[in-house]
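Researcher: For the annotation table, I need structure tokens for Periplasmic chaperone for outer membrane proteins SurA. Please keep the output clean. Sequence:
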Amino acid sequence: MRNIHHFAKSAFALLCLVFTTASAFAQAPTQAKVDGIIAKVNSNVILRSDLEFGYLQYLSQSKQQPSEDLKCQIFTSLLQDKLLLARAQVDSVIVEDAMVTNELNQRIEYLASQVGGTERLEQYYNKSLKQLRDELRRTVRDQMIMEKMQREITSKVTVTPKEIKKYFNAIPKDSLPYFSSEVEIGQIVAFAEIGKEQKQEARQKLEELRKRILAGEDFAKLATQFSQDPGSAQAGGELGFFKKKELVPEYEAAALRLEPGGISNIVESQYGFHLIQLIERRGQEFNTRHILIKPATATVDIAAAAVELDSIRTMIMNDSISFAKAAKEYSDDKATKDNGGMLTSRATGSTYTPMDQVDPAIFFVIDTMQVGEISKPIPYTTPDGKEAMRIIYLKSKSKPHLANLQDDYQKIANAALSEKRSKAVNEWFRKNVDTVYIDIDPEYEQCGGLKLTQ
């Protein structure tokens, strides 16, 4: 049960659960059983489809054989999730909208990186980014609340060196895990700058469209015809209602300065140049439409990015600056610059990556590198399609080996702590199961969910 519950909490699994399996089910034959509520914890419900999605996703990730016992374990894990949410509602545990928005944006960016950018993401699901965010927002909020509840439950749980050793010694010798070669990899990224001429052309095109709108032409029709935002162009450029801090700062600031019906001046953001019309304000929310023009990228200055990175590499190699500090000061990659430039696993948060899971584009660079070396600048295309250069740092590389306390102390300590936290959470479940209303469909009563035992 511990492993299944951990799976249900992983951010990567959540993304797959919400989108991947939902997409698969949309294309699958009609289900044998009609969807419906199979459990209720206060006002929080579990649908049959929730269980089926989670069950199929776990099978695909774990490679286990299908079984009713496994499905029961998934059901109990979902029931535990709903109990956490129910108690959070009773105890007024919340997460701020800004935190949800930030996490949501990170997950959308991660998902986009898996399919080749935001435009391909929208095309793949045939939905705008706004629709995808709306569908995922509640799930992200609920998960963040559950994680906050678990942190509060386990905040005082720690493990001593003696407990770590005891945990390791309890593992049968023939069951010790075998760790493949793992690496720690860092990067510093420099975006290739778009030339001034390309930016000026994009701005001039929008200026001309602005004049046409002020002369009486319809903003929505021109947005449909000219906007390069695939998520909103077909809707006349309309984005729908957003709260403050949910859109990029430059766009939001310009939009909120307008009166309904007003037209902004040209606004530059990370996505390109915008012409914005405020449609309506409603409390703390506002609805806008826009026309987005992206500067042509055919003549980005890759050479300048390479020269910049080569200079940074030289400073690091001459010990004038550490790699971590250089990443923080110079890297254009927001995902890694504040982490010393180190790449991390989204599923585990670890900086250690098994060699067989390293991005092929990086694998062939580090394959001939020695630990501590930094590559020369190499071409790189970001997940959202930007042209860039990067330098790669091989911080460490381990040899394949059986788990042992000397080489793997931190991993073993984390495993021991995870087990102890799991026990604390399960004890909390047992103490709180009678504090909420739980109703389970007779079909799933045999799963023993009400016992909430490990």
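Researcher: And a one-line annotation?
Model: Confidence is low (pLDDT under 50) at residues 1-32.
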